[in-house]
């Protein structure tokens, strides 16, 4: 059986990503937390807080109040609607 790149078969016979295959702590995290559905209100709140904190760390912002609206609008990830091309009319 050929596995996709980044996956390995561990000693216990389970297939895991390479990052979770060697360290027991990462293996336990992968087996118990990674990909598990969040079913409690507290769990959803935890994920939202962690996501917000990691987003701020990634973008280097302490608060969204510090960000200028023009900078947010010009950010590459800001969604832009696709507009139809203008209709050309025959000149009279």
Mean pLDDT: 76
Strand content: 5-15%
* Series of H and E elements: EEHHH
Biggest pleated-sheet summary: 2 strands, antiparallel
Per DSSP E runs of 2 or more residues, the count of β-strands stands at: 2
Helix content estimate: 25-40%
How would you describe the overall organization of this protein?
The protein has 92 residues and is mostly helical. 36% of the residues lie in helices and 7% in strands. The chain contains 3 helices and 2 strands. It has helices spanning 24-32, 41-59, 69-73, and strands spanning 7-9, 15-17. A two-stranded antiparallel sheet has the order 1-2. A hairpin with a 5-residue loop joins strand 1 and strand 2 (15-17). The longest helix is centred in the middle third of the chain and has 19 residues, at 41-59. The termini are far apart. The mean pLDDT is 76.
What's the quick description here?
The protein is 36% helix and 7% strand. It is built from three helices and two strands, in the order ββααα.
């Amino acid at each position: 059986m050929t596995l996709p790149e980044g996956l390995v078969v561990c000693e216990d016979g389970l297939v895991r990503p390479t990052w979770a295959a060697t360290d027991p702590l990462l293996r336990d995290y992968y087996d118990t937390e990674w990909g598990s559905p969040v079913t409690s209100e507290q769990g959803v709140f935890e994920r939202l807080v962690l996501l917000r904190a990691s987003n701020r760390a990634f973008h280097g912002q302490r608060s969204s109040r510090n960000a200028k609206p023009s900078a947010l609008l010009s950010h590459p990830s800001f969604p832009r609607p696709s507009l139809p091309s203008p209709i050309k009319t025959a000149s009279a």
